[in-house]
Automatic annotation (TrEMBL):
This is Predicted Zn-dependent protease. GO terms for molecular function: peptidase activity. It comes from Alistipes shahii WAL 8301. It comes from the Bacteria. Keywords: Hydrolase, Membrane, Protease, Transmembrane, Transmembrane helix. The chain crosses the membrane at residues 20-39, 141-161, 167-187, 226-245.
Length: 249
């Protein structure tokens, strides 16, 4: 009887601590979601604002991209047009800088900043920037892991409920952790591309003064979206860790 009472005495504080930790995780996830919404809304606002500001050079986003590539002695990358809004990206497989509707033919500060940022990735590729190389290598692994992870964890929890075997659950967590790792590696890739873009815009005198400051602001808000994504990915890993540990009680 004493042993049972002692077990209950120790189990209750443990459960209370777990419940508090779980509640804390939910609050963290909600907070990150709110911050992400605010950052995304601010990015859209800044981009919209500076999409109306024409810079003195009058170059379109496509022309800015082509000029930056030439200045960096990159001649095997083609600047192309893709549909959508803020769907701009550099594709190392096709060696193309793909600019969206709102960037390709626009001569605004925002368009020039985005075009230069995407060319920053092309420069990274040409210079063998290690984080970009690593991120590219992880793409197929992360695509598979992000698709399968949730199902693996669900199956793992079913097995855990009947056999107390956690192995499959932790494999699923490992898969989700790959996405978090990918998000963390993405941070230096994106920040470095923006830094290269700003440096080139300044040294090439494509932008100066107020327009350069506006381009920096637009790129800084874009970079913050990747920071929020990384925090969200880490929170997801922690959520599933607590979920699995809670099944032990």
């Amino acid at each position: 009887m004493i042993a049972l009472l002692q077990a209950g005495y120790y189990a209750e504080p443990h459960a209370a601590r777990y419940d508090a930790a779980t509640m804390g995780m939910f609050v963290l996830i909600i907070a990150i979601g709110v911050i992400g919404f605010i950052v995304q809304a601010r990015l859209q606002s800044v981009f919209k604002k500076y999409s109306k500001v024409q810079f003195p050079g009058g170059l379109t986003g496509a022309e800015v991209a082509e000029k930056m590539l030439r200045d960096n002695n990159i001649h095997n990358v083609k600047v192309t047009h893709v549909g959508g809004h803020l769907t701009d990206h550099f594709n190392p497989q096709t060696m193309t800088v793909n600019l969206s509707d709102s960037v390709y033919s626009s001569s605004s500060v925002a368009a020039a900043a985005v075009a230069a940022h995407e060319c920053g990735h092309a420069v990274q590729h040409a210079r063998g920037y290690a984080p970009l190389t690593l991120r590219s290598q992880l793409v197929p692994v992360v695509q598979f892991a992000s698709t399968a992870a949730t199902w693996v964890i669900i199956l793992g929890l079913v097995i855990l409920a009947s056999t107390q075997n956690e192995l499959l659950c932790w494999i699923g967590v490992g898969m989700i952790a790959m996405s978090a790792l990918f998000s963390l590696i993405t941070l230096p890739v994106e920040y470095n591309a923006s830094a290269r873009a700003v440096e080139w815009l300044q040294t090439s005198r494509t932008m100066q003064g107020a327009q350069l400051a506006q381009a920096k602001e637009a790129l800084s808000w874009a970079a913050r979206t990747y920071l929020v994504a990384a925090l969200s990915a880490i929170a997801s890993v922690l959520y599933y860790v607590f979920l699995i540990l809670g099944r032990r009680d």
